[in-house]
User: Which sequence fits this backbone?
């Protein structure tokens, strides 16, 4: 039996995506599985948004996962599962909005980093 190859949305250059919790609770209902994950959203500009959306639709139609492949703060490659995608037209150009499934340990690490950043910030007493 061969492994199913995921469709990758790869961020080649630029900053690490900023993952934000989704503002509505019902989004969490799209995830089911053996591991606890939280749906988060991120945005980034793209020059080929229509192509990316078409590749995602084809992968999901074929039963293949879609993953966001990106560099973290240490420039190490990371991947997270994409659960939904939308293309938006902004003044600065087209941007993809991705809803991704983040493992809870990743979210805890992000929260710890945010807490540490606030401790070092002179604007926070």
Assistant:
């Amino acid at each position: 039996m061969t492994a199913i190859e995921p469709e990758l949305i790869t961020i080649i250059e630029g900053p690490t995506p900023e993952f934000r919790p989704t503002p509505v609770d019902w989004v969490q209902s799209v995830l089911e599985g053996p591991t606890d994950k939280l749906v988060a959203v991120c945005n980034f500009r793209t020059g080929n948004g229509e192509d990316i959306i078409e590749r995602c639709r084809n992968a999901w139609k074929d039963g293949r996962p879609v993953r966001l492949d990106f560099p973290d703060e240490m420039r190490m490659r990371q991947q997270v599962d994409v659960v939904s995608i939308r293309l938006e037209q902004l003044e600065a150009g087209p941007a993809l909005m991705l809803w991704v499934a983040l493992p809870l340990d990743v979210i805890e690490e992000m929260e710890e980093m945010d807490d540490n950043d606030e401790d070092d910030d002179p604007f926070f007493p």
About this structure: The two ends are 57 Å apart (CA to CA). The longest strand covers residues 77-90.
